[in-house]
Amino acid sequence: MAKSTNRLTAIELDVLEAVARGMQNQQIALQQHRSLETIRTHVTNILRKLRARNRTHAVAIAYHVGLFRGHPDATTRTHADVRHPLLPPRQH
């Protein structure tokens, strides 16, 4: 993610978070009220932007670069930009 144009959008982060939870594209589409084709496009864009080989690799990269943290602690709870996909989804 060297260029700013390669940063993931908020929607792509939401999709990647769902992927990290083990959800399939159809489940993500239903949860996010989007079409299956839209979710596929987002996943393709995520893989391209992260230069990932597959969904699992994309999640690993997200953890490695700090997009996700597996176990929140007092330090990471204050960072709104860090996602916690292993916790229950946020309620809107």
The share of residues in helices is 40-55%
The number of strands is 0
Number of DSSP helices? Answer: 4
Rough shape? globular
Structural class: mainly alpha
Unreliable stretches (pLDDT < 50, length at least 5) are 72-80
Terminal Cα span: 29 Å
Query: How many domain units?
Result: 1
CATH architecture: Orthogonal Bundle
Main sheet summary: none
Specify the CATH class.
Answer: Mainly Alpha
Q: What name does the CATH topology carry?
A: Arc Repressor Mutant, subunit A
Strand content: under 5%
Give the helices and strands as they follow along the chain. HHHH
Q: What is the CATH superfamily label?
A: Winged helix-like DNA-binding domain superfamily/Winged helix DNA-binding domain
Averaged pLDDT, please? 82
Cα Rg: 13 Å
Structure in words:
The chain is mostly helical. It has one domain (4-78): Winged helix-like DNA-binding domain superfamily/Winged helix DNA-binding domain (Arc Repressor Mutant, subunit A, Orthogonal Bundle). It contains four helices and no strands. The chain has helices at 10-20, 25-32, 36-50, 55-65. Helix 1 packs across helix 3, helix 1 packs across helix 4 (55-65) and helix 3 crosses helix 4 (55-65). The radius of gyration is 13 Å and the shape is globular. The termini are far apart. Mean pLDDT is 82; it is low at 72-80.
